[in-house]
TrEMBL record:
Name this polypeptide is given: RCC1-like domain-containing protein
UniProt RCC repeat ranges: 30-83, 84-137, 138-191, 192-251, 252-301, 302-354, 354-417
One protein family per Pfam: WD40_RLD
Keyword Repeat assigned: yes
Gene3D superfamilies per UniProt: Regulator of chromosome condensation 1/beta-lactamase-inhibitor protein II (2.130.10.30)
Record SUPFAM superfamilies: RCC1/BLIP-II
Keywords carried by this UniProt record: Repeat
């Protein structure tokens, strides 16, 4: 899901004081907490400083509205309020914030409201350089980088779209959910049909197709295309990563497709890498998350499984060995079920019994390490040290986690005061 980019390290903030006693953050109030690399203002805290521990975003940043969802992308973050309004912060070099050209800004350190959709928004998703929103009536709006058709707006659309734009070719089709990867997008209709578009035929699930004289056709799709191998299968959930995509049907079966997934993970099925293949060694599943080179699945019984590349311990299984087949993540999850999971480039986060656990790349000795500096604390443990097993993230008192989202090297959560 993630592409390497150069970071300008902005500090090592240790986290903000939790104000759980404030009346405007009373019982039932939902807020956002963020941590990790703060470059380009992706944390929305008003500075470029990194946060080694969770920092709460003040409700005043969103007009004192309660928050419903958060989506962390490459270097930007989206926030959805309980009233269906959308805010964005962070890098805007490809218009991924959706705030238009009039602002003439390459990044912002504070959340800005995204306007122009005109309807209540119910779902959001952030890819590396692009973003999307789904309205209450199932319309899909997209914006950001469009170099490989990842916005689904057609081949004649510009390579950069800086305002939310309706995907007109889906008129009359109700979209339930969508997931954005590095340069591709996947969505599910209310009838369970799965669609994909953008760059990379493998991660789109359409297979390699030859054109005239057997020459390989373009691997990009510029408008949403039905994934034919999943026809007749009612899909409920989708996920998109760097090179892979995944989905879960209404029976709890998991399907994966991507250039580097199938031939590595299921020996002998390399030819099926570009079309969906079912993973048979998993219990009934309800949620899937794709990261840089790893994947996590949450079963209906609250068990968490992971597999793929295990750089920096992002699988959470106590080693850094690569696992080609699903391996159960144990530790605290043997006693308490997992309810949410999210994958970043090389780190992972999960929610169990209202608590957040993170593991994987902490920031030190990472891709962007230079002269001993760190990329930034995305695990939220107060250090930048890698963690190969799930470790709890400490928050203020009287809060429980409802949602978690991992970006490239930052993390965000929706918390509720109890």
């Amino acid at each position: 899901m993630w592409r390497t980019m150069r970071m300008k390290l902005g500090g090592t903030g240790g986290g903000r004081r939790w104000l759980s006693s404030r009346s405007d953050w009373g019982k039932g109030k939902r807020i956002a907490a963020v941590w990790g690399n703060g470059d380009y203002g992706r944390l929305g805290l008003g500075s470029l400083g990194s946060q080694w521990k969770p920092a709460p975003l003040r409700s005043s940043a969103f007009g004192d509205q309660s928050l419903e969802a958060i989506a962390c992308g490459g270097a930007h973050t989206l926030f959805l309020t309980g009233s269906g309004r959308l805010y964005a912060t962070g890098l805007n070099d490809f218009g991924q914030l959706g705030v238009g050209d009039s602002h003439d800004l390459t990044y912002t350190c504070k959340p800005l409201e995204v306007t122009g959709i005109g309807k209540e928004i119910v779902r959001i998703s952030a890819g590396y350089y692009h973003s999307c929103a789904i309205t209450e009536d199932g319309e899909l709006y997209m914006w950001g980088k469009n170099s490989n058709g990842q916005l689904g707006l057609g081949k004649r659309a510009a390579g950069l779209i800086s305002v939310p734009t309706k995907v007109e070719c889906l008129a009359g089709i109700t979209i339930n959910t969508a997931a954005l990867g590095s340069e591709h997008s996947v969505a599910v209709t209310d009838g369970g049909e799965s669609l994909s578009w953008g760059g990379g035929s493998g991660r789109l699930g359409h297979g390699h197709e030859s054109g005239i004289l057997g020459i390989l056709r373009s691997t990009s799709e510029y408008t949403p295309r039905l994934i034919k191998k999943l026809e007749g299968i009612k899909v409920k959930e989708v996920a998109a990563g760097l090179l892979q995509s995944a989905c879960i049907d209404d029976n709890g079966s998991v399907f994966m497709f991507g250039e580097r997934t199938v031939d590595k993970l299921w020996s002998g099925k390399g030819n099926n890498a570009t079309t969906p293949s079912m993973i048979s060694k998993l219990p009934c599943s309800k949620e899937v998350a794709c990261g840089g080179y790893h994947t996590c699945v949450l079963t209906s019984g609250g068990e968490l499984y992971s597999w793929g590349s295990n750089e920096n311990g992002c699988l959470g299984i106590g080693t850094t060995d690569v696992f080609h087949h699903p391996e159960r993540v144990q530790g605290p999850f043997l006693k308490s079920p997992v309810v949410k999971v999210s994958c970043g480039w090389k780190h992972t986060a999960a929610i169990s019994e209202g608590n957040i656990y993170t593991w994987g790349w902490g920031g030190s000795l990472g891709t962007f390490s230079e002269d001993g500096h760190s990329s930034g604390g995305q695990l939220g443990h107060g250090t930048d040290v890698d963690c190969i097993k799930p470790a709890m993230v400490t928050f203020g008192q009287n809060v429980k986690a409802l949602q978690i989202s991992c970006g490239f090297n930052h993390t965000g959560a929706i918390l509720e005061y109890t």
